[in-house]
C-alpha cells in the first residue's frame, strides 16, 4: 500500500468505482490488480508465460506498493515460502505456469489443509513432454482436487477482476482457503486489449489475521505440538477421524465460498440466451472463441446460448443443471487434451449424452470459431439422426 | 473501414514484428476502433520465426490467438518465404480472397508456380517494399524495418490515421510505462542510442513511415508468367 492509496469496500471497488480504459496485456492487468490488492508480500520464480507479470509485481515493490518481494530458488520453494508468509499472517501473492505448477504441486493441498487464503495466478501452458511454452490448460485438470478455490479468467479484464475478487472470497473466515486464478497463457497474458481499470488509489482493506479460523503462527514461539507431532505419526481411531474430518472441513469451506462468489463475482457462471436449446459451455479463453462462434451461428439462424463457467472449484453443478434443464445439446470446447471441463459437466447433469466433449485444441494452437461451429453442426446432425 | 480486418505479421526475432503490431493496435484504439494484438514465438531468440497478429474491427473482438484467416499478411523478411521461417506453410495459408500480401524485399522473390497460381486464384494483391533499405537509408538503422513495414501498410490499406500512428509511436518509445521482455528492452536501448533524443527517434521514424508508404510497388502476376520479373505497376492502394 503506497501513501496515496486509501482502503475501500471490496464491493465498491468491484462494481461501483469509476473505471477508465487502458490498452494493456494480461500480464500488466495482473500487476494492476496486485497494485490494488494491499498485498504484504510477493515471491517470484520466472517461467514463461508468467515471468512478465511477476517482474511487474517486483516493480510494484520497488515503488512501495508491496512490503516485501524476492525471487525464490524454484517453484516449490516459492510456494512453500508464500505458505510461510501466509501462516505468519500476511497477505501474499505469487504466480506460475505449467511445469512450474507441477513442480510445486505438493504445496497446493498443504495450503488448503492449513487453511491459508493464498492467492496464486496460474498462466496455463503446455506441460512436458513434448515441451511447449504455448497455451493449454491441462494443469487445471490436475489441480481440481487440491482443495483450493479455482477461478478461470476469460480475458485480461477477468484476470484483473478475479485476482482482487479472489482475496475478498478466500479470506472470509468461514472460507479461508487458497484461491488459484487461472488464465490461458499468451491468449491472455500476452494479448493486448482494452481493460477497464478503477483508480489505483482505491485498494482492498488489509488482511486481518485475527479473523482467521486458524491462528497465525508466531515464529518466536512456534507451536511444536502441531508441527512436530502430525496425525500421520499416530495409528489410532482418533487420528484417522481427525484427519478425515479435517478434509471434510476443507471441502465444506469450499462449499461455503459459494455465497461469496455470488456476491463478489456475480455468480459461479454466466448464461447468455438462456432460452436456447443448444448451448456452448466453456471456461477461460475458450469462452471468447465461443462468443465468435455464437455470433456466426446466430447470423445463420441457429439459436445458440453460451454458458461461461467462472468458478471451477467450487463447481456450479446446480446452476448448470438449471441452465441446461431444457437443452438438447451442450457442446464443450476446451484448450486441453484431457477434457476435464466436459467430464465435470457430464458428472453433474441428467441425460448427459446431451454433452458433447469437444472440440479440443492443445499444443499451443488457437481454436478457430469455424472448428466450434462445425462441431455444433455435426452434433446437430447426429441428434437429428437420433444418435444423441 | 466498416469491417473486421485481420493482419498477420511474420518475421524474424529482433525485427520488431511484435512492436509493429503493438504500435498499429494502439493507433487503431486511438482512432476509436476496437483492436487486439498478440504475439506468437518460441523461446526468445534473434532470427527465430516470430509472428504477431492485429485484429481491427468496428465491433468488439473476442477471439484470441493466431490469425488463421488474414485479410493482410506482412512478411518482414524474405527468409520467412524462402527458408520457411514461418508458423504457417505456405506463408499465405488462410489468406482471404482479395487479400493483400506486403513483402519486405528489394526485388520480387521467385515464388514457385503452384503458390503463384493459388495466389492468383485468390485474387490476392502482392506488394513489395524495400523496407530494410528504407530503414537504413532514412532512419539510419535496420531496426526501423518494422516502421518501414508499417509505412508500407499505410500505403496499401486505410486502417489507421497518420496522427494516431505517430502518437502511438511516441507513446511506445517515450513513455515510461511500456512493458517489454528483457531482449526487447535491450533492443529498445540500442535503438534509442542511435538517436540523441527520443523526439529525434520519433521524427526519423515518421519520415521512414512516410517514405515507405510511397515506395510500395504492386506485383504484376502476368509479368512472372511471361518470364519477366520486373515490377511494372505501382500500387494504387
Q: Could you explain the architecture of this structure?
A:
The complex is a heterodimer of chains A (388) and B (237). By secondary structure, chain A is an alpha/beta fold. Chain A has helices at 10-16, 26-35, 51-62, 75-87, 98-103, 107-113, 138-142, 156-170, 224-228, 237-265, 285-299, 317-323, 340-348, 369-384, and strands spanning 6-7, 19-25, 41-44, 68-71, 92-96, 119-124, 149-152, 179-184, 192-198, 202-203, 269-272, 278-282, 304-309, 311-313, 329-334, 355-360. Chain A contains 14 helices and 16 strands. A seven-stranded mixed beta sheet of chain A has the order 4-3-5-6-8-7-14, sandwiched between helices. The longest helix of chain A is centred in the middle third of the chain and has 29 residues, at 237-265. Chain B has a single domain (5-222), classed as Pyruvate-ferredoxin oxidoreductase, PFOR, domain III (Pyruvate-ferredoxin Oxidoreductase, domain 3). In chain B, α1 crosses α5 (145-156) and α6 (162-174) runs antiparallel to α8. Chain B has helices at 17-30, 79-82, 113-121, 131-139, 145-156, 162-174, 182-193, 198-215, 221-225; strands at 5-12, 34-41, 49-57, 72-75, 100-104, 125-129, 217-218, 233-234. In chain B, strands 2-3-1-4-5-6-7-8 form an eight-stranded mixed beta sheet. Chain B is of the alpha/beta class and 237 residues long. Mean pLDDT of chain B is 87; it is low at 225-237. Chain A binds chain B through residues 23, 25, 27-28, 48, 51-52, 56, 133, 135, 155, 184, 186-188, 190-194, 285, 288-289, 291-292, 365-369, and chain B through 22, 25-26, 29, 34-40, 42-43, 61-66, 68-69, 179, 181.
What characteristics describe this protein?
heterodimer, A: 388 residues, alpha/beta, Rossmann fold, 2 domains, five-stranded mixed sheet, 14 helices, 16 strands, globular, B: 237 residues, Pyruvate-ferredoxin Oxidoreductase, domain 3, 9 helices, 8 strands, 41% helix, disordered C terminus
Amino acid at each position: 500500500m503506497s501513501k496515496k492509496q486509501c482502503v475501500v469496500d471490496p464491493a465498491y471497488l468491484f462494481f461501483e468505482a469509476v473505471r477508465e480504459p487502458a490498452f494493456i496485456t494480461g500480464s500488466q492487468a495482473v500487476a494492476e490488480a496486485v497494485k490494488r490488492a494491499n498485498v504484504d508480500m510477493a515471491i517470484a520464480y520466472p517461467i514463461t508465460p508468467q515471468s512478465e507479470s511477476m517482474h511487474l509485481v517486483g516493480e510494484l515493490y520497488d515503488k512501495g506498493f508491496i512490503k516485501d518481494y524476492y525471487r525464490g530458488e524454484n517453484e516449490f520453494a516459492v510456494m512453500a515460502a508464500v505458505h510461510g508468509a501466509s501462516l505468519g499472517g500476511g497477505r501474499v501473492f505469487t504466480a506460475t505456469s505449467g511445469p512450474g505448477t507441477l513442480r510445486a504441486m505438493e504445496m497446493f493441498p498443504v495450503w488448503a489443509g492449513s487453511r491459508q487464503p493464498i492467492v496464486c495466478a496460474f498462466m496455463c501452458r503446455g506441460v512436458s513432454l513434448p515441451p511447449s511454452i504455448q497455451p493449454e490448460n491441462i494443469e487445471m485438470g490436475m489441480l481440481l482436487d487440491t482443495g483450493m478455490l479455482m477461478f478461470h479468467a476469460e480475458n485480461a479484464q477477468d484476470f484483473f477482476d478475479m485476482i482482487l475478487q479472489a482475496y475478498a472470497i478466500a479470506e472470509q473466515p468461514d472460507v479461508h482457503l487458497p484461491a488459484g486464478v487461472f488464465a490461458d497463457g499468451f491468449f491472455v497474458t500476452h494479448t493486448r486489449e482494452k481493460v477497464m481499470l478503477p483508480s489505483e488509489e482505491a485498494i482492498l482493506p488489509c488482511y486481518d489475521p485475527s479473523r482467521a479460523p486458524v491462528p497465525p503462527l508466531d515464529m518466536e514461539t512456534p507451536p511444536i505440538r502441531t508441527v512436530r507431532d502430525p496425525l500421520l505419526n499416530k495409528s489410532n481411531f482418533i487420528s484417522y477421524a481427525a484427519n478425515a474430518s479435517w478434509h471434510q472441513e476443507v471441502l465444506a469451506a469450499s462449499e461455503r465460498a459459494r455465497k461469496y462468489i455470488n456476491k463478489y463475482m456475480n455468480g459461479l457462471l454466466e448464461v447468455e440466451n438462456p432460452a436456447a436449446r443448444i448451448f456452448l459451455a466453456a471456461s477461460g479463453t475458450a469462452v471468447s472463441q465461443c462468443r465468435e462462434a455464437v455470433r456466426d451461428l446466430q447470423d445463420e439462424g441457429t439459436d445458440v446460448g453460451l454458458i461461461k463457467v467462472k468458478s471451477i472449484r467450487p463447481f456450479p453443478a446446480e446452476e448448470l443443471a438449471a441452465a441446461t434443464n431444457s437443452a438438447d445439446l451442450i457442446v464443450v470446447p476446451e484448450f486441453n487434451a484431457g477434457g476435464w471441463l466436459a467430464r465435470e459437466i457430464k458428472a453433474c447433469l441428467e441425460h448427459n449424452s446431451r454433452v458433447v466433449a469437444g472440440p479440443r485444441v492443445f499444443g499451443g494452437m488457437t481454436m478457430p470459431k469455424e472448428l466450434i461451429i462445425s462441431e455444433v453442426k455435426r452434433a446437430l446432425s447426429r441428434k437429428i439422426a437420433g444418435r444423441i | 473501414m466498416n469491417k473486421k480486418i485481420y493482419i498477420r505479421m511474420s518475421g524474424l526475432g529482433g525485427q520488431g514484428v511484435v512492436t509493429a503490431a503493438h504500435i498499429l493496435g494502439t493507433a487503431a484504439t486511438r482512432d476509436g476502433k476496437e483492436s487486439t494484438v498478440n504475439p506468437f514465438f518460441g523461446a526468445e531468440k534473434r532470427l527465430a520465426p516470430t509472428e504477431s497478429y492485429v485484429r481491427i474491427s468496428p465491433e468488439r473482438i473476442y477471439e484470441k490467438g493466431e490469425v488463421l484467416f488474414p485479410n493482410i499478411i506482412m512478411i518482414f523478411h524474405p527468409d520467412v518465404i524462402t527458408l520457411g521461417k514461418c508458423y504457417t506453410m505456405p506463408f499465405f495459408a488462410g489468406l482471404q480472397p482479395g487479400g493483400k500480401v506486403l513483402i519486405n524485399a528489394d526485388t520480387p522473390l521467385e515464388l514457385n508456380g503452384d503458390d503463384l497460381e493459388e495466389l492468383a486464384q485468390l485474387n490476392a494483391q502482392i506488394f513489395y517494399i524495400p523496407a530494410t533499405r528504407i530503414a537504413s537509408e532514412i532512419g539510419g538503422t535496420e531496426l526501423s524495418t518494422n516502421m518501414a513495414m508499417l509505412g508500407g501498410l499505410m500505403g496499401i490499406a486505410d486502417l489507421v490515421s497518420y496522427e494516431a500512428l505517430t502518437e502511438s509511436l511516441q507513446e511506445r518509445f517515450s513513455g515510461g510505462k511500456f512493458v517489454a521482455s528483457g531482449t526487447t528492452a535491450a533492443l529498445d536501448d540500442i535503438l534509442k542510442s542511435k538517436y540523441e533524443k527520443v523526439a529525434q527517434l520519433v521524427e526519423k521514424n515518421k519520415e521512414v513511415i512516410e517514405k515507405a508508404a510511397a515506395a510500395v510497388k504492386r506485383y504484376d502476376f502476368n509479368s512472372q508468367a511471361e518470364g519477366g520479373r520486373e515490377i511494372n505497376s505501382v500500387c494504387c492502394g
